[in-house]
Amino acid sequence: MDREDSRRERSDTLILRVWVVAGSSRPRVEQRKDGTYRVYVSSAPEKGKANAELVDRMAEHLGIRKGDIQIVRGAGSREKLLRVGRVK
User: Fold this and answer.
1) What is the DSSP string of 55-76?
2) Which terminal CB of the chain, N or C, has fewer other CB atoms within 10 Å?
3) How do residues 34-48 score in pLDDT, each as one tens digit?
4) CATH for 11
5) CA distance 9 to 74
6) Which helix (H) or strand (E) holds 80?
7) Closest to 40 measured CA to CA, from 48, 32, 53
8) What pTM did the predictor assign?
């Protein structure tokens, strides 16, 4: 991925850059100083389990519905871009 802004706005949506750490014993969401997110999930990165937990955790962290988050790039890697709509 190129290093454009980690948080870009498009009309009523945001594009967020996220780094996922799977298999964590302490699941949590951290926002980094550069605007990116590091999300620690307990699920293993198999059969979409870690991606599903990522969406759950980010929705809870941002206070929005899970359906308002979409993985637009990186579904099979640790570095992802998320499209987030209707952020409060």
Assistant:
1) HHHHHHHHTS-GGGEEEEE-TT
2) C
3) 999 999 999 999 999
4) 3.30.1200.10
5) 19
6) strand 79-85
7) 53
8) 0.83
Domain count, the chain: 1
Residue 50: inside a domain: yes
- Residue 18 exposed, middle or buried by CB count within 10 Å (0-12, 13-18, 19+): buried
The residue with tokens 């871009």 is 81
Answer whether residue 29 is part of any domain. yes
Spatial CA neighbour of 17 closest among 79, 64, 87:
79
Please indicate, yes or no, if residue 2 is contained in any of the structural domains.
Answer: no
Q: In 3D, which of 63, 23, 57 has the Cα closest to residue 71? A: 57
Tell me which residue of 48, 59, 50 sits closest to 20, measured CA to CA.
50
Residue 33 lies in a domain: yes
- Name the band, by pLDDT with cuts 50, 70 and 90, for residue 49: very high
Pull the structure tokens for residue 6.
């980690």
How many alpha carbons fall within 13 Å on the CB side of residue 24? 14
